[in-house]
């Protein structure tokens, strides 16, 4: 579905890995909105990959390309094994999570905890790049620092160490991670954003592709950051809650290649996929959950959400639910 391009070109705009949000149905919807934006899975732990149902955890639709697998772990040997599995599944990229501050990652000493042990992080990066052997790109996503670290000191050291192990692209969430006293949700909002520091990292490490993440809400902001020379911008919750506003015109505005996709066009493009998923026994509401925000900001958006929410969970619910929801919203938008 997507032209064969260098993955760095697609990384000009990406959608962040978000737990419980960017599942395969969400990614398929986002691909219907944008042919070029780089998509990420939810973070999958190494233990789950090695000991769980790999197909259930890692399977994806070929139409999702370019798509990246994000993994979480801190044991180099296990990360290498998980990387090999990701390569075998055909992911375009395997990304190491070095930014999540949740209790689960803290108990396993991975995620943002790895920023406190740059030597171990370098070992993890080396294990992954050696295992990949060029089959897929190995990247990293981190914060600017953790707890009482000084970002201006720790971040350049971290970038230098992992770049030496073959990591060529790093996504930086422009906030500190506070492991004590804040919930994961609060960590997404309370620590202040430091965009100038991320921009400074691109100046300091011109050979490393630097992607900025955190707090970006609109394509206007994306283009503003790209205008500074940063290599890409990663959207998070904005892409989920307002997918048309952020992704529907991304191909034209960010990539200069493609036409805009409206909310109703996205719905129509999703119908064959929905039929295929229903035939596999997937419940409609699982597929349509990321579609609730398609008409955000439009007249009739509330009715759209109501119909999908109230009827999508019922046994036997099918495409006719979307047709009813669409008929409710389009007259309001006319």
CATH topology of the largest domain: TIM Barrel
**Helix coverage percent of residues?**
40-55%
Strand segment count? 9
The CATH superfamily of the largest domain is identified as: Aldolase class I
What is the number of domains? 2
For the termini, the CA-CA separation is 31 Å
State the name of the first-level CATH class of the largest domain. Answer: Alpha Beta
Strand proportion? 5-15%
Q: Pairing-aware structural class of the strands and helices?
A: alpha/beta
Largest sheet: spatial strand order? 1-2-4-5-6-7-8-9
What's this model, at a glance?
With 334 residues, the chain is α/β, with parallel strands linked by helices. It has helices spanning 7-10, 24-33, 46-51, 54-58, 76-89, 103-108, 118-132, 151-163, 184-187, 195-204, 219-226, 237-241, 243-247, 250-253, 263-279, 284-288, 301-311, 319-333; strands spanning 13-15, 38-40, 44-45, 67-72, 93-98, 137-146, 169-177, 209-213, 232-235. An eight-stranded parallel β-barrel has the order 1-2-4-5-6-7-8-9, surrounded by six helices.
Key features?
334 residues; alpha/beta; TIM Barrel; eight-stranded parallel barrel; 47% helix; globular
Give your account of this protein's structure:
The chain is an alpha/beta fold and 334 residues long. The protein has two domains: 247 residues, TIM Barrel (Alpha-Beta Barrel); 71 residues. The chain is built from 18 helices and nine strands. Strands 1-2-4-5-6-7-8-9 form an eight-stranded parallel barrel, surrounded by six helices. The longest helix has 17 residues. The two termini are 31 Å apart. 46% of the residues are buried. The model has no long low-confidence stretch (mean pLDDT 94).
């Amino acid at each position: 579905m997507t032209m064969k391009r260098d993955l760095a070109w697609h990384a000009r705009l990406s959608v962040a890995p978000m737990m419980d949000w960017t599942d395969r149905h969400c990614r398929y919807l986002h691909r219907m909105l944008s042919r070029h934006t780089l998509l990420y899975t939810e973070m999958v732990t190494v233990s789950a990959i090695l000991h769980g149902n790999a197909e259930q955890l890692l399977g994806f639709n070929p139409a999702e390309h370019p798509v990246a697998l994000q993994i979480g772990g801190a044991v180099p040997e296990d990360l290498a094994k998980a990387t090999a599995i990701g390569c075998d599944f055909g992911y375009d990229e395997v990304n190491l999570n070095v930014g999540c501050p949740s209790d689960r990652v803290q108990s396993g000493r991975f995620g943002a905890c790895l920023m406190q042990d740059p030597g171990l992080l370098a070992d993890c990066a080396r294990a992954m790049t050696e295992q990949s052997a060029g089959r897929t790109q190995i990247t990293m996503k981190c914060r600017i620092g953790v707890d009482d670290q000084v970002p201006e000191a720790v971040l350049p050291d971290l970038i230098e160490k992992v770049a030496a192990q073959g990591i060529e692209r790093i996504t930086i969430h422009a906030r500190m991670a506070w492991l004590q006293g804040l919930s994961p949700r609060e960590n997404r909002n309370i620590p202040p954003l430091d965009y100038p520091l991320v921009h400074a990292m691109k100046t300091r490490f011109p050979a490393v592709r630097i992607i900025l993440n955190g707090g970006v809400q609109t394509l206007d902001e994306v283009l503003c950051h790209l205008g500074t020379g940063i290599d890409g911008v990663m959207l998070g919750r904005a892409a989920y809650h307002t997918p048309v506003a952020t992704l529907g015109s991304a191909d034209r505005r960010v990539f200069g290649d493609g036409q805009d996709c409206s909310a109703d066009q996205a719905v129509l493009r999703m119908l064959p996929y929905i039929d295929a998923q229903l035939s596999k026994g997937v419940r409609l509401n699982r597929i349509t959950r990321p579609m609730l925000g398609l008409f955000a900001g439009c007249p009739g958006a509330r009715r759209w959400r109501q119909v999908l929410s109230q009827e999508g969970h019922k046994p036997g619910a099918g495409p006719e639910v979307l047709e009813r929801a669409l008929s409710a919203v389009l007259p309001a938008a006319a």
